[in-house]
Specification:
Elements lengths: L2 H8 L2 H4 L22 E3 L1 H7 L3 E6 L9 H14 L4 E5 L3 H13 L2 E7 L5 H9 L3 E5 L3 H13 L4 E2 L5 H7 L1 H10 L5 E5 L4 H16 L7 E7 L4 H4 L21 H11 L2 E5 L1 H15 L8 H12 L8 E6 L7 H6 L11 H8 L1
Parallel strand pairs: 2-10, 3-4, 3-6, 4-5, 7-8, 7-10, 8-9
Antiparallel strand pairs: 1-2
Length: 356
């Protein structure tokens, strides 16, 4: 085996947390270098919210640019261990990119079913370049998920959406990393909520961290949904979810019960946000912190800012906001939020004037 492969495998997420994951000695230690993402302190948000410590968990630094890689590496490794030859998922984009990459790494075929016209360009491009067979259906994510669940039930494919419990197991490792970095769990965690697997996974990780002595407490879980795609806030599925934050444009979350359990057991909340509130924090993170995340990620920060304005952060001294994906996932939103490029003649005077 080449030395570079040995080195990569030695730092795999599965190896690091093997004693806390549902893996065996037979589970392939596939890896793309997932996990170990930065925890960055935000002076801007501390000033604005009055919270003593605000940290950003930058999950866009995972190999395919989103948090999905944590769970996908475990799901694909277990599928490989169980003899699967192909994997299948429905996706708004990030799951597709991750599934396709890890399937390629493992030598498996990958099928992706997407809602037509509702996937950001960067994510679709990733799934395609990794070799996935991509099918767009005329419907939303919920219809796509129902279709892949039915297809996988025939036994032809291993389903790697977050209804697969191995996904949740892998994603909980982010909670372990936060506790390891901070020396304890934070007082609260802010997180975007779409299909609700991630808030479910973080809560599971924090509960296990407290039980094992890695943490002395469990944080309050604050989840945030876009107003036009807020089934957990409304208490009922949304037939036609709407938001520019495509990663959380989901009307009937697969992990509904897990999200509600995390909210209630932690004394937290799941709140709605307008697209304007999300856009403002999306731009603010880039311009005030140099942190470029995809629009849905900014919901965590928009939610924190909204709760601060409402005086709803009492007793919270340390908080972590999860930035779930990289900004390059959605270049169209970035362009729409930026000034036009100034085009001038190639002279000092015109360039100086334009820079002013």
């Amino acid at each position: 085996m080449p030395p570079t492969m040995t080195a990569a495998m030695a730092t795999s997420l599965i190896d690091r947390y093997a004693d806390r994951l549902p893996v065996t000695p037979r589970t392939p230690r596939i890896t793309l270098g997932e996990g170990g993402t930065p925890l960055v302190r935000s002076a801007w948000l501390e000033r604005e919210t009055g919270v003593h410590e605000v940290w950003l968990k930058v999950e866009g630094m995972n190999p395919t640019g989103s948090f999905k890689d944590r769970g996908m590496v475990v799901a694909v490794a277990k599928a490989l261990e169980e003899g699967a030859t192909s994997v299948l998922c429905a996706s708004t984009g990030n799951t597709a990119a991750s599934a396709a990459a890890y399937a390629a790494r493992a030598g498996l075929r990958c099928g992706v079913v997407l809602p037509a016209g509702h996937v950001a360009l960067g994510k679709l491009t990733q799934a395609m370049i990794f070799g996935a067979r991509v099918v767009a259906v005329r419907g939303g994510f919920d219809e796509a998920l129902a279709l892949v669940c039915e297809l996988s039930a025939s036994g032809d494919h291993a389903l790697v959406n977050s209804v697969n419990p191995h996904r949740i197991e892998g994603q909980k490792t982010a909670a372990f990393e936060i506790c390891e970095s901070l020396g304890d769990a934070p007082d609260a965690l802010c997180i975007p909520v779409g299909n609700a697997g991630n808030i479910t996974a973080y809560w599971k990780g924090f509960v296990e961290a407290a039980s094992s002595g890695l943490a002395t407490k469990r944080p309050r879980m604050f989840g945030f949904q876009a107003e036009g795609a807020a089934p957990l806030v409304r208490g009922a599925p949304v037939a036609e979810p709407r938001t520019f934050a495509t990663a959380i444009r989901i009307g009937n979350p697969a992990s509904w019960s897990g999200a509600i359990a995390a909210r209630d057991a932690s004394g937290g909340a799941i709140d709605p946000l307008s697209d304007d509130e999300i856009r403002a924090s999306y731009a603010g993170l880039a311009r005030c912190e140099g942190t470029f995340c995809e629009p849905a990620s900014a919901a965590a920060v928009a939610g924190l800012r909204k709760r601060a304005r409402a005086g709803a952060l009492e007793g919270i001294d340390r908080i972590v906001c999860v930035l779930t994906g990289n900004g390059l996932k959605d270049p169209d939103s970035a362009r729409a939020s930026s000034e036009a490029v100034a085009e001038v003649g190639a002279t000092i005077g015109e360039v100086r004037a334009a820079l002013r």
